[in-house]
Amino acid sequence: MKETNIKSLKNWVWAYFLLLIFEGALRKWVLPGLSQPLLLVRDPIALLLIFQTIKLGIWKPNNYVIIMWLLTTLAFIFALIFGHGNILVAVYGFRITAFHFPLLFIIGTLFDKNDVLIIGKAMLWLTVVMTILVGVQFYSPQTAWVNRGIGGDTHGSGFSAAGDYFRVPGTFSFTNGLSLFYGFAAPFVFYFIVNVAEIKVPRYLLWGATVALIAAIPLTVSRTVLFEVVVSAAFTIIVSGTNAKQIKTLFGGAVAVAFLVLALNTFSFFKTATDVFDRRIENATQSEGALNSVFIDRFLGGMYSAVTSENNSFLGMGLGMGTNAGAKLMTGSTGFLISEGEWGRLVGEMGFLIGLLLIIIRFSIVVEFLRDGWQSSRLNNTLPWMIMSFAFINILQGQWAQPTALGFSIVAGGCTMSAFKTKL
Prior knowledge:
By secondary structure, the chain is an all-alpha fold. Helix content is 71%, strand content 2%. It has helices at 2-30, 43-55, 63-81, 87-110, 113-139, 175-194, 203-220, 223-239, 244-264, 268-288, 291-308, 324-331, 342-377, 383-397, 403-419; strands at residues 159-162, 165-167. The protein is globular.
């Protein structure tokens, strides 16, 4: 009976994952009239999983979740009494850590390593299909159906990149979702390449996904995608450093990828995208600085500004106020009423004490997963370590106010936990 319940709950986790990938497609192309309610389409699944796993005795809230629930409840009360006083805004902020955060641990309880490998293989297929879609969007005008925005907006969903070309969102509502998608795909591509001899993955699928991931870097015109792929590559090199067999496989794969890039660059569709991407990097570097300096500025600058902003207060300005949806409810237009950075939002919304405690919780989870992932890699299970190449920055500093970023953080964290278990 318990196995039947677990199988049913696993299906709900898959529903959460698939809605994360295709929620934007529903909001743009399938059900544009329901674009606003669909923003919260994964919330009922989160609540169902929390309720059912506790009821059936499959999962018990751990200290992270209990403390997070307590702090979130206090922040909710403070928002209504001392903060903005808007109950809808407070509820929207409440759901982030009350409904979705526990799923990180619920997924880690329900899934095992085999389930994560299935997710990984699904990501290979999705990467191929997504890149084909991105290519069509990149070379299509913004007025084309494939580039429609939220609610069927015929003005298009892309953001200006360079020249007459746009950054496109794939199946997602906004371009950040596409960047997160490829960031989540990269660890699986690298993991399967290095472990291709031990894991049954069709070679044509693995190479197809590799080509798609490489092609996606210029087609997305996203420095974030490039950064995420580089980080996953670095994690692969680090974990393969003492394994002669993996080093040999990795070196062969690197040579093959180098020749693949040269071959792709002979095709006009790839070269055009590469030229646009080069111009995008050049323009962004002039205005924001080099990629490494931007990362350092956003990471360390986010830490600094989170505790030094003059808008901060001990009890905070109110839960949910720092989200785009909260801004829309309060002012009629989207924007950053508190801070664009995640840590600045947390401290600004909830105050110094609660905000800093939430940051410490997220930091503690990252440290624990990285430590355990490294130890697991020494026992020939490198999958948790590889997933953390994407998950660590998104759990630590991902913009959870945005539903897609929240979803990818939770799924990646849950998959990291699950990958430690060879069987359920």
